């Protein structure tokens, strides 16, 4: 016996990936509904070998549905998700709306699976920010061994993190560099993204950090350990898909780089590719379409007593969003609903 599943925002990049991953992983679906805004009503999407037509989120009745995966913005989620939750349909939300609510679990299944049992407080589970999700998968097994004190991370985040509009802007600006008359001014981003990098994601906060940077701090504390100190610099780069991170970690106890490599090799959700030779590391282009979080460039940091550096790469549309949501759905079914 399977589940009655709803995918909200099925016409967007993340919604498409949710459907693809549900099918790829053989999630036990008895019935599926795909929802979108009224302007996209009737748009066709694929789920495995099936073609589905989107229904109107505004009028959909969630009564009798088991779980819903949400890939819409915070405004729409705020309006409709409580209705789904109240109707008994568990909400797995990819927006930032509920991440910092103490009554809503924020889950990366490889890191804090036990938190799923707290879903019943509001019938809602939050999916973390894409940049946080891949980092904490790498941090957790190392933290269990040597206790992390402080993390310094610089991100190199692809334009797909800003949705289809971000991808289109990079494409159009790149073409405009070579085709007279097709120049494209910044719209989605604050400055030109083609052949450039922008140290600004989301809005600025009073302390000078951006909200994206704040998210990494707050979410790492909630998911892994509130005692960990985190400082982040988040940068948008001209890559279509795949986020990369340079991560510096300071531990309470000494952790040798070889032991760290061995720990990460056996950790769930991680693939270590770390050869000290040309091409012996993973780049964003190579991670696209993969489930794993790839770790490379593991090495001792000699400037502090107990430090390591590593390079972390993942498909942000998958592990950073859709895959993590589906993994939460699998965990919810296995541990709590237990129908499939």
Summarize, please.
The protein is 30% helix and 24% strand. By secondary structure, it is of the alpha/beta class.
Characterise the protein shown here.
This protein has 340 residues and is an alpha/beta fold. 30% of the residues lie in helices and 24% in strands. The protein contains 8 helices and 14 strands. It has a 6-stranded parallel sheet, sandwiched between helices. Helix 3 (130-146) packs across helix 5. The longest helix has 20 residues, at 318-337. The chain is globular, with a radius of gyration of 20 Å. It starts with a strand and ends with a helix.
How do the SSEs run, as a string of H and E? Answer: EHEEEEEHEEHEHHEEHEHEEH
**Helix content range of the residues, please?**
25-40%
Physical arrangement of strands within the biggest beta sheet: 5-2-1-6-7-8
Q: How many DSSP helices?
A: 8
The coarse silhouette is globular
Low-confidence stretches: none
Rg over alpha carbons: 20 Å
Main pleated sheet = 6 strands, parallel
Q: In whole angstroms, how far apart are the ends?
A: 5 Å
Beta-strand percent range: 15-25%
* pLDDT averaged over residues: 96
Compute the number of strand runs.
14
Name the structural class. Answer: alpha/beta
Helices and strands, with pairings:
Blueprint: E1 3-8, H1 13-24, E2 29-36, E3 44-47, E4 50-53, E5 55-56, E6 67-70, H2 74-86, E7 90-93, E8 124-126, H3 130-146, E9 148-157, H4 163-176, H5 211-223, E10 229-236, E11 243-251, H6 257-265, E12 270-272, H7 284-287, E13 293-300, E14 307-314, H8 318-337
Parallel strand pairs: 1-2, 1-6, 2-5, 6-7, 7-8, 9-10, 12-13
Antiparallel strand pairs: 3-4, 9-11, 11-14, 13-14
């Amino acid at each position: 016996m399977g589940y009655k599943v709803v995918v909200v925002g099925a016409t967007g990049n993340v919604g498409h990936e949710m459907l693809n991953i549900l099918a790829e992983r053989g999630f036990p679906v008895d019935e599926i509904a795909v929802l979108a805004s009224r302007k996209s009503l009737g748009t066709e999407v694929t789920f495995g070998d099936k073609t589905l037509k989107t229904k109107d989120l505004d009028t959909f009745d969630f009564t009798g549905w088991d779980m819903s995966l949400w890939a819409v913005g915070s405004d729409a989620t705020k309006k409709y998700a409580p209705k789904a939750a109240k109707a008994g349909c568990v909400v797995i939300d990819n927006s930032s709306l509920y991440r910092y609510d103490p009554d809503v679990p924020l889950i990366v299944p490889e890191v804090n699976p036990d938190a799923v049992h707290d879903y019943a407080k509001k019938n809602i589970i939050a999916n973390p920010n894409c940049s946080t999700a891949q980092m904490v998968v790498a941090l957790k097994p190392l933290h269990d061994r040597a206790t992390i004190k402080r993390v310094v991370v610089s991100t190199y985040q692809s334009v797909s993190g800003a949705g289809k509009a971000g991808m289109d802007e990079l494409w159009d600006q790149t073409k405009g560099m070579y085709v007279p008359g097709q120049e494209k001014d910044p719209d989605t981003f604050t400055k030109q993204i083609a052949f450039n990098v922008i140290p600004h994601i989301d809005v600025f906060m009073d302390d000078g950090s951006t909200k994206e940077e704040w998210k990494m701090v707050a979410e790492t504390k909630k998911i892994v350990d509130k005692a960990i100190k985190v400082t982040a610099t988040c940068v948008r780069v001209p890559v279509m898909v795949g986020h990369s991170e340079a991560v510096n970690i300071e531990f309470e106890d000494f952790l040798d780089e070889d032991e760290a490599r061995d720990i990460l090799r056996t950790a769930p959700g991680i693939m270590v590719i770390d050869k000290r030779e040309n091409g012996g590391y993973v780049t964003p282009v190579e991670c696209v379409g993969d489930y794993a979080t790839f770790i490379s460039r593991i090495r001792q940091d000699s400037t502090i007593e107990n430090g390591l550096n590593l390079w972390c790469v993942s498909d942000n549309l998958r592990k950073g969003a859709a895959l993590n949501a589906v993994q939460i759905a699998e965990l919810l079914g296995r541990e709590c609903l237990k129908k499939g």
